[in-house]
Protein 1
Amino acid sequence: NAGVTQTPKFQVLKTGQSMTLQCAQDMNHEYMSWYRQDPGMGLRLIHYSVGAGITDQGEVPNGYNVSRSTTEDFPLRLLSAAPSQTSVYFCASSYDWGQYTEAFFGQGTRLTVV
Amino acid sequence: AQSVAQPEDQVNVAEGNPLTVKCTYSVSGNPYLFWYVQYPNRGLQFLLKYITGDNLVKGSYGFEAEFNKSQTSFHLKKPSALVSDSALYFCGRNTNAGKSTFGDGTTLTVKP
């Protein structure tokens, strides 16, 4: 029972490089989202998707792109990495986007931009 | 402004003692509130949620939370803390737009 799987677990990028953080879930969840976690700032929503083909911006979307071509996958793309994007990134999914639905989180990707 | 807040960055408690991790909210209407726990190098795990009804909600690992509308609080509690409860705890809520917002987190340290 895999749940939410994120790859890679660790990544070091040079400023200006691009990369894609992968997220896959096997629970047939409609709703998926990306967060970044920074010390003292909790989790901040980057982008989210309420279903395949539908994405929207969260609280801190600048510098990130997403797409949702399938129910299972929700990759996060950094187009030109900056040191300010050094963070731990979490992907989450939930059965739907109802107010009373809890989220399932991946184990995170620790990204360092030098 | 945050709609949920965790007023304490750090909580320290001795093993066997009761623990409380505080959360307050500022939401009009029904506040759908959640508690999650994050162990080192892991993602968040759902503990419990308040939707409506009973003000005392029971969750995983012996945790419970008390919803108090007059004090706009949703504190996480456990009668007897374990060293293994040491972790980072987040209070959160879902908005009607399907987004989740979280407090800044509280680090719980349980000492033997």
Note: The radius of gyration of chain B is 13 Å.
Protein 2
Amino acid sequence: EAGVTQFPSHSVIEKGQTVTLRCDPISGHDNLYWYRRVMGKEIKFLLHFVKESKQDESGMPNNRFLAERTGGTYSTLKVQPAELEDSGVYFCASSPVGGPYGYTFGSGTRLTVV
Amino acid sequence: RKEVEQDPGPFNVPEGATVAFNCTYSNSASQSFFWYRQDCRKEPKLLMSVYSSGNEDGRFTAQLNRASQYISLLIRDSKLSDSATYLCVVNKGGSYIPTFGRGTSLIVHP
């Protein structure tokens, strides 16, 4: 079974540019989560999809962040325009419907804004 | 007070030692509890769920104390390969949204 896949693994962009991160969850997992870990801090929840619907986006920092999950399959997280404080590791995780189950994480996208 | 608090360590122990980590949570309505392991520059991986009655998986034992709102992880007979950061994860009460602690760093040395 393929795991959670994230792309790209690394991204270095300049302040003010746009970056789009992609997450492919495990097939059949309706729950999809985005998290961010800033250096030295704990992993923070950003938002939660159930299929294509945003169930909880209370963790999104501001309106420069836009997440989508068209068709309830893969998800994208766009940061526009990027700021220095957006640097960190962005993790995606998925889990089956129901639960609670443990979450399977992708390997993350390391974003550096310079 | 943080929602999930862990002693960041590092815990530096010799091979074969027994080590215990604690984690406290603030939301008394929390329902689900997990321990994750994260290796350097890798993603978190589920180590074990924590059940009310306590549970064991090989050298690892997890306990939950709802009255005091803490969970623990005990590692017996530590191996070099146990060196990692151990993350306490608690689901928000009434939802399946997990809240992470900052993690406890374990270093097992020869």
Note: The first strand of chain B starts at residue 4 and ends at 6.
